[in-house]
Specification:
The protein is an alpha/beta fold. The chain has a single domain (6-19, 48-221), classed as Rossmann fold. It is built from nine helices and ten strands. Helix 5 links the parallel strand 7 and strand 8 (196-200). Helix 2 crosses helix 3 (116-129), helix 2 packs parallel to helix 4 (146-157) and helix 3 (116-129) crosses helix 4. The radius of gyration is 19 Å and the shape is globular. It starts with 5 loop residues before the first strand and ends in a 5-residue tail after the last helix. The relative contact order is 0.16. The structure holds adenosine-5'-triphosphate (ATP) and magnesium ion (MG). Magnesium ion (MG) binds next to helix 1. The site of magnesium ion has 4 residues, from helix 1.
């Protein structure tokens, strides 16, 4: 049997605020197979970002198990995680005082195992892999367009060739053209680097363009995780609102446009 890349079992996340408890995840279960682009959708505050951070090993669930590439996610920790899991954070999160190349090189430099020229060379390779030209290397983050910031953040997430990539709203805030070209880049990298991808997105174009399956987070759990066609047909108020509300016509057009044979 092929081992899943991520396996989440009976996960609970409870935050305490004084004597008030909020249950974010309750008995949540999800399995992500190798090579998938699994999209996670859900209302704001349903715990999508928290779940990605838990898969990355940056946060720990209150109860339950998360296994990443056969090991407990908690063992990934902050250090060393970059070789197994790359993450593109929701808020771009480049270091504003570092150049583009320094940003990309950061996780590798922090490991302190490779000489600076090798680290620089590796970062240059990734810079070009995300479609930027070498002259972008010495630019500062404040000089970049939104689309370029996302590309630099992606290059940094991929610096150590991790098999698993987590994307938190990768196309949010981009204009339609930049969003389209970022999707094309993600699709190519997914293929070329044989990546498994977990992506949070509200953007229907991105969702239908890239997802092999969609997991819907509602009522503190994953209520359905299936191919897009099945998810859209599932009866639940959130799904109805998300896919068939005011944006529904567009969603239906997309359904006709994409055959879901990815
Ligand atoms: N460290 C924390 N302590 C207390 N509450 C937290 C903590 N981290 C997250 N939360 C709460 O958990 C809930 C889920 O947060 P999360 O950021 O995962 O939502 P999200 O689904 O990513 O939302 P959005 O779509 O707006 O990005 C929110 O109500 C948030 O305020
Ligand atoms: Mg979020």
């Amino acid at each position: 049997m092929i081992e899943p890349v991520v396996e989440i079992k009976k996960l609970w996340t409870v935050f305490k605020n004084g004597d008030k408890e909020s249950v974010i995840h309750k008995d949540l279960e999800m399995t992500i197979e190798r090579g998938e682009v699994l999209s996670l959708v859900g209302g704001s505050g349903t715990g999508k970002t928290v779940l990605l951070r838990q898969i990355l090993g940056l946060e720990h669930p209150t109860r339950g198990d998360i296994t990443v590439l056969g090991k407990p996610a908690a063992e990934l920790g902050a250090r060393g995680a970059a070789s197994r899991v790359g993450m593109l954070f929701q808020q771009g999160a480049l270091f504003s005082a570092f150049t583009v190349l320094e940003n990309i090189a950061f996780p590798l430099r922090e490991l302190k195992v490779l000489p600076p020229n090798v680290v620089r060379e590796a970062a240059m390779v990734k810079l070009q892999m995300v479609g930027l030209t070498p002259d972008a290397a010495d630019k500062m983050p404040s000089d970049l367009s939104g689309g370029m910031v996302k590309r630099v953040a992606l290059a940094r997430a991929l610096i150590m060739d991790p098999p698993l990539l987590l994307l938190d709203e990768p196309t949010a805030g981009l204009d339609p053209e930049s969003s389209d070209s970022f999707c094309t880049l993600l699709r190519a990298l997914h293929h070329d680097m044989a990546l498994t991808v977990v992506m949070v997105t509200h953007d229907l174009d991105t969702l239908f363009e890239l997802s092999t399956r969609i997991a819907v987070l509602a009522d503190q759990k994953v209520i359905i995780c299936d191919v897009p066609k099945e998810v859209v047909a599932f009866t639940h108020p959130f799904i109805h609102e998300f896919f068939l509300g005011p944006r529904g016509q567009r969603a239906m057009e997309l359904l006709r446009e994409y055959p879901f044979t990815v």
